[in-house]
Description:
By secondary structure, the protein is an alpha+beta fold.
Amino acid sequence: MNKSLFIAxxxxxxxxxxxxxxxxxxxxxxxxxxxxQIVNEVSKKPYRIQSNDVLVITIKTLDQKLSEMFxxxxxxxxxxxxxxxxxxxxxxxxxDDHGSIRIPVLGDVFVLGNTTDEVRIEIEKRLxxxxxxxxxxxxxxxxxxxxxxxxxxxVNSPGTKLLFQEKANILEAIANAGDITMVGDRKxxxxxxxxxxxxxxxxxxxxxxxxxxxxxxxxxxxxYILVNPLKQxxxxxxxxxxxxISTLISILSLxxxxxxxxxx
Length: 264
């Protein structure tokens, strides 16, 4: 009788601790009474180029054949290049460890710490000073070769990803990886970022709406995102109530069988 009572009391306790609560699965919850929160101004600052970034540079003039000599990949398809990840790798301009890129004819252009607009202005100035007159209508366009990042852990599609957009937040990056699994810890997502002075690590709680005010809410090129598992995964008891009940019923059946056999 005591054993049966103990099992009856143990069953709901195990059921409660083994399930993943809804509060651990819901993004951007309002955990305080403040409303109309303002996103941190730090996230609105323009991105400044770092080593290993890849730039996509387009140079156009009235004489397109003449301007093609400044492109990394000239020829008949020069105007249609850089539409996929492979082409960006071969035709883009990678920032070296000294903070420079090498452009045909122009040579080295220092870009480290500059914005894409500042790089565009510098290239336009050098072209007009050294090779073209104002009447040539020089047009330069400089963009990042997408937002490349790596995501691992409890996501449905881990690996290195590339987003073809100027800015993306960490929720978009996770959605691009198929979202976090049921046993992923949304309250403690690790963001590893390469900075000029070294590596920095940040922990983000994606269940709290205040994460949108974090200066690390928007990802940067070469970021690494790690989603660690919840304890429920190592327990192996199931993530939902149905799964947990099924597991506990199996355990209860096993315990009952052992009690019957040992009581004989």
